[in-house]
Amino acid sequence: MCLAIISAMEVEMELYLDRCTVHRSVERAGLTVHEATWGAHDLVLVQAGVGKVNAALCTQLLLGDYDVAAVLCTGSAGALAPSLDIGDIVVATDCVQHDLVVEFMDLPRGQIPFTEHRFFETDPALRRRALDVSLPGHTLTEGRVLTGDRFVEDEAHRDRLRDALQGHCVEMEGAAVGQVCTLNAVPFLVVRAISDRADGTSDIDFSAFLREAAQSSARIVLHLLDALPSSFTAPASG
């Protein structure tokens, strides 16, 4: 079995490609899948592209083509919780689609119509191991990740999302990965480093701190891999 690592952007994937040993790269559905190793772990590494559709496509492709034990989604995010600062790390307890709104059915924000799915819980064992990682200069916290196909850069919108869903940070892929993994009964984890405050300065902060945030989340995941047994499988995550 292997572990899949997915990120949206090149800058979020580059540290993995630099540090891991890549054995082969294959093209699938417009994506480049890198078959690699890190220590005793077999990996598949993919830059999925930005947004929920890209993340879901990539995740399902990997689950169909590889014997995946768990999926790790990493990269940057905007802070929703006032306690979070740029450079802090959020290890997701669960994920939800903040832009899924079906008011005429009287459904709460994030509820997928005609299903029981709203919040997608990350794997507890992966989450515990990630939170045990020590990365000097960075604060790790667990919390809810909100996902949507919109870059949040307005304080009022940010505060509404935080209050409605009790979210800690906001990004554009995690809940899509979570939905696909949940439906396929595959463990997953989302690790995000704060690159901006999801406010009027977000465009400036995002550009300035994206590389630092991307590398911070990647380092957490690589430390997590060091702590995982080489035989990690879905039953071990219970």
3D structure, described in words:
Helix 1 (10-19) packs parallel to helix 6 and helix 2 runs parallel beside helix 5. It contains six helices and ten strands, in the order βαβββαβββαβαβαβα. 33% of the residues lie in helices and 30% in strands. The model is unreliable at 234-238 (pLDDT under 50). The chain has helices at residues 10-19, 52-65, 124-131, 155-165, 174-183, 202-227; strands at residues 2-7, 21-28, 31-38, 41-47, 68-79, 89-97, 120-121, 140-147, 169-171, 188-196. Strands 5-9-8-6-10 form a five-stranded mixed beta barrel, surrounded by five helices. The two termini are 17 Å apart. It is an alpha/beta fold and 238 residues long. The protein is globular, with a radius of gyration of 17 Å. The longest helix has 26 residues, at 202-227.
